[in-house]
Amino acid sequence: MRVVILDNYEEVSRWAALHIAERIRESAAREPAARGRRAKPFVLGLPTGSTPLGTYRELIRLCGEKKVSFENVVTFNMDEYLGLGEDHPQSYRRFMMDNFFNHVDMDKKNIHTLNGLAQDSGAECLAYEEAIRAAGGIELFLGGMGSDGHLAFNEPGSSLSSRTRVKTLTGETRIANARFFGGDPQRVPATALTVGVGTVMDAREVLVLVSGYQKARALRAVVEEGINHMWTLSCLQMHQCAIIVCDREATDELKVRTVRYFRDIERRP
Ligand code: GLP
């Protein structure tokens, strides 16, 4: 696992956006359109939450400056609240449209999100896994982390080989997300559709953004402790191409020597 430690949230956002843009450009150069054949799409997994907002802003800026294009990018979002439709102001679909998709040159038919109003949520989850497979799998999964170390909505105790399914949210997650629901945890839906830990682990690369003191305890568990289903992001220890990009505040609970080691690695020419 690579851990990139930067000074602050703005640097984390810039680093992540440049990394994603570079991967998209590399893929376009590797698999260009040829006569009678379209370029291979770049399949990108995406999160919601406050943390990726800066990265989305940077990607929008890079797209505006024509430094990256999303024309040939296919996206799959991580999760959605069960019971919220795409027009609900707190739905993750709406969040993504407002904060990212509406501001870049994406073909809207390339956007995939879980349907929180699906009649049969089990079938919706199976179809999502199938759609990811049919798209050729996810090239790069961008993620965030809950303060209890959760990835997407894979709450503590989730199977590390889980696939897309319905999960019951913990009280801690509902309290943390209450800020989007008028401050009332009871108004946060109790269940959500979410990709599984196994779904994220199948991506060729996983990039996770971590920012702030409130994530420091979880970051220590994920980086310095063992693989543990109570801190589901610790699954990254088993991934061949995983990067955590974090700010200094988030490293507050790491050992000095851990921080020094990861910083030394990044300084290497
Ligand atoms: C929710 C989302 C996660 C996200 C987490 C942290 O639980 N399902 O994908 O990583 O919130 O959000 P924030 O970035 O706002 O701290």
Could you give a short description of this structure?
This protein has eight helices and ten strands. It is of the alpha/beta class. The longest helix has 22 residues.
**Bound heterogens, unique:** 2-amino-2-deoxy-6-O-phosphono-alpha-D-glucopyranose
* Average pLDDT, all residues: 96
Number of helices: 8
- Assembly status: single chain
Report the C-alpha radius of gyration, rounded.
18 Å
Let me know the largest β-sheet: 7 strands, parallel
Describe the global form. Answer: globular
Helix content: 25-40%
Are there runs of 5+ residues with pLDDT below 50, and where? Answer: none
Please report the total strand number as a whole number: 10
Order of strands, main sheet, comes to 1-10-9-6-2-3-5
Distance between the termini: 19 Å
Which class of secondary structure composition applies to the elements? Answer: alpha/beta
Describe the protein.
With 269 residues, this protein is of the alpha/beta class. The chain has 8 helices and 10 strands. It has helices at residues 9-30, 53-64, 92-99, 121-134, 171-177, 197-201, 216-224, 256-267; strands at residues 2-6, 42-46, 73-77, 79-81, 111-112, 140-143, 165-168, 191-194, 205-210, 242-247. The strands form 2 sheets. The protein has a 7-stranded parallel beta sheet with strand order 1-10-9-6-2-3-5. Strands 4-8-7 form a 3-stranded antiparallel beta sheet. Strand 9, helix 7 (216-224) and strand 10 form a beta-alpha-beta unit. 2-amino-2-deoxy-6-O-phosphono-alpha-D-glucopyranose is lined by residues 47-51, 78-79, 144-146, 152-153, 173.
